[in-house]
Specification:
- The protein is an alpha+beta fold.
- The chain is built from two helices and four strands; from the N terminus they run E-H-E-E-E-H.
- A four-stranded mixed beta sheet has the order 1-4-3-2, covered by helices on one side.
- The protein is globular and about 40 Å long.
- The N and C termini lie far apart (31 Å).
């Protein structure tokens, strides 16, 4: 990529907030936090502030995870994300 930033948002295919939380919490090299304007690699699930009874699978936005990628080697981050995505049902 040329001239692009490291911000990516995905929509996961799951109906359970617990699976999204488990996926994000299993990330070993991406921190769960909002951007502080730095170069750190971060993950922010849109459902982070919801109670389980507020989660609605039909709302795509609730199933989004936003990633801010840092300056690491891509293979390092891909391996971490692959092991985390295995936690989704």
């Amino acid at each position: 990529m040329s001239g692009a930033c490291g911000l990516v948002t995905i929509v996961v295919k799951t109906g359970k907030i617990e699976e999204i939380v488990r996926c994000c919490e299993s990330l070993q090299h991406l921190l769960m936090a909002v951007s502080r304007g730095g170069h750190e690699r971060l993950a922010l699930p849109k459902c982070a502030s919801l109670l389980p009874q507020q989660f609605n699978m039909a709302n795509r936005e609730r199933r989004m995870i936003r990633f801010y990628f840092g300056l690491e080697e891509p293979a390092y981050l891909v391996a971490d994300m692959e092991q985390a995505f295995e936690k989704l049902g």
